[in-house]
Fold this protein.
Amino acid sequence: MPQYTPPVRDTRFVLEQVVGLDRYSNLPGFDAASPDVVDAVLEEGGKFVAEVLFPLNLSGDQQGCTRHEDGSVTTPDGFKEAYKQYVESGWATLGNQPEYGGQGMPHVVSTAFQEYMISSNMAFAMYPGLTHGAIAALVAKGSDAQKAMYVPKMVSGEWGGTMNLTEPQCGTDLGLIRTKAEPQPDGSYAITGTKIFISSGEHDLTENIIHLVLAKTPGAPDSSKGISLFVVPKVLVNQDGSLGDRNGVTCGSIEHKMGIHANSTCVMNYDSATGWLVGEEMKGLAAMFIMMNAARLGVGLQGLGVAEVAYQNAVQYAQDRRQGRALTGPKEPQEKADSLFVHPDVRRMLMEGKAMTEGLRALILWTALQGDLEHNATTEEERQLAGDVISLLTPVIKGYGTDKGYEIATNAQQVYGGHGYIAEWGMEQYVRDARIAMIYEGTNGVQAMDLVGRKLAQNGGRGIQAFFKLVADDVAAAKGDAATAGFAEALEKANGQLQAATMWFMANGMKNPENVGAGAVSYMHLMGIVAVGAMWLRMAVAATKLKAAGEGEAAFLDAKLITARFYAERILPDAGALRRKIEGGAESLMALPPEMFMAA
């Protein structure tokens, strides 16, 4: 049976030494995030997920959700009771705004708790996760009346939320949607259409579900410019806030899918359902992007969360399992075989898992801090820098983070050998669950194209230039210390490869746009390597200083420094190969006619 221990010590290290929470105590929300309070969130949050959510993960996957003849959906045994405990314990309100009933904790702190939720039970974590995204869109674009009617009960966890984009004939190309919104005399709209792949679309955890739905009004352009956003509650809400009649929205079916069985991924049918316009007509895509960007960062966190729990179990298995002997001779001659830890290839998979999970944790939490600073920093310059960086890194965290999360999960399964293929050990579930994160909220190829096609040129390249400077400044400071100079120089070389690849795109992208498309995923991975490398440099600097001061746990700090060295020697060099792939251009990639792809 799998196990999970929330990585509280590592999270605390990142929050204190990389994020530097104490430096922001003068900003809104951060005044409540004292060390004692943050410790309580991590410790008690970790205890809650380990004791309440994690025990439901395997059984929830095996049982799945059930759709009944009336269109209602029940979640697996124990989920409803666990969700009630989640709400009553106040975890739903952790990072939400006080004016709507939230605790107002910084986003970076609530993100740490969300990682633990995902690791313990990804399918369960998706129910409140979708609600958080819907809250963000309503707060940003909803009317005062809409915010007053829906947001407080979504914040409290009494009501859920979803996003409804995809239809049978359209996925990424949202201009192809056919769902219609007919204006009604009372100012509402009648929403008619079918949406697919709707996570948490129908369930029994909350008394109402607030759907945010993309649709087109009569006469709207037949493209993405004609899309509007509507709020469509599962149950209509009376003016006094009480629940009224059931709306014309039903779950037609639950998708039979590869993973996340305990989350109800629904086909949603809208039959003249009553909805209300959110924001301006035909400005729906911009409004939905608020929710989508929040979801993309959340999916990147899923990559980390599943990787962490899979990695933890692989480490434990490698300690317990005895197979073969070390290449240099028996390490434990009194035993019939050595543990898996003596084998370099097992070590390779586990060290890659350790380097990437700890590095991604630092990157995601640091990026979450940028989200806090974008709204709350004291100067416009700081807010602009934070906004530029989070916009640039969102597709990297989603794309690179989930590519690596899946890779770590499959490597963890590999450590188990044949047992990794057997359900009772839990690894095959983590592989299945991790795989979806590479697909939804825009496939990782779409994330890469967003990065190279939009984010690099955004605001005249201000974001990428800011990123280069952040890395260069850290490198310059670290090169002055012999203990960190080697890592700094390795990161400097990788950052140089990223800069050169960026310049190559500028020189060759306009000449042939397919050059950009052909190199997009390699560029996303190159930036991911540098971004995670920047976090490892900061962790190495912090560990070095703490050791010199005689502070912190020596073994923990030594592990940080060894893992940083591994990252420098075994992962940063990949930057050069990725740059050469990018500079290979599109010619050979695009030359073969489609009919020649089949050898038969």
The first strand starts at residue 66 and ends at 67. Residues 284-320 form the longest helix (37 residues). DSSP finds 18 helices and eleven strands in the chain.
